[in-house]
Write a structure and sequence with these properties.
Layout (H helix, E strand, L loop, with lengths): L2 H8 L1 H29 L1 H15 L9 H20 L2 H33 L4 H52 L1
């Protein structure tokens, strides 16, 4: 049996899982290459943020509250990191929702099987088998989508954490220079 047949046999839930998988994989690849580019451009980014921080702490701004200036400086880094992290929650949601969609397909498949059994009896096991097949296919589909997204999300979070640590170090070196 071909994979297309399995998807078709799984019904609407399998099509939803397929769409989530395509979108999620594209997003993971986009974030992966984007984070690699951010790593390469870290020196430029550090110089940019450090210059903004130096501007905040320049002699012209000495009259303002020092706590407020620190808050503004921290917001600069936080703003950059927020833009870097954008999209990671979507990957996490796909990893979380996919097995639930698979479970929904399981429940619908079993329900379908029992409805067919109730209406036609147990004389023909193929009637019961189609519902069970739907149940198993959607369960597998949900897990197939979920596992790579869960791994990808954790890997990307590690890349973001590493980028943040290196960036903080670079900014401190530039500010204290």
């Amino acid at each position: 049996m071909k994979i297309v047949d399995y998807i078709h046999q799984g019904g609407a839930i399998m099509y939803i899982l397929l769409a989530l998988n395509i979108f999620g994989v594209a997003l993971m690849l986009y974030k992966f290459f984007g984070l690699n580019q951010s790593k390469k451009d870290i020196a430029k980014t550090a110089v940019f943020i450090a210059s903004k921080i130096k501007e905040i702490f320049s002699p012209e701004n000495q009259n303002s509250n020092s706590q407020a200036r620190v808050d503004i400086a921290l917001r600069e880094l936080s703003s950059y990191m927020t833009s870097v992290e954008k999209g990671l929650n979507t990957i996490k949601i796909i990893a979380t929702v996919s097995p639930l969609l698979g479970l929904l397909g399981t429940v619908l498949g079993v329900l379908l099987s029992f409805n067919k059994m109730a209406s036609s009896g147990m004389g023909d096991p193929t009637i019961f088998a189609s519902g069970i097949s739907l149940a198993l296919i959607t369960t597998v589909g949900g897990l197939i989508v979920s596992i790579p997204h869960y791994i990808g999300h954790n890997y990307l979070i590690g890349m973001v954490d590493e980028l943040e640590q290196v960036l903080e170090k670079e900014i401190l070196l530039k500010v204290l220079k």
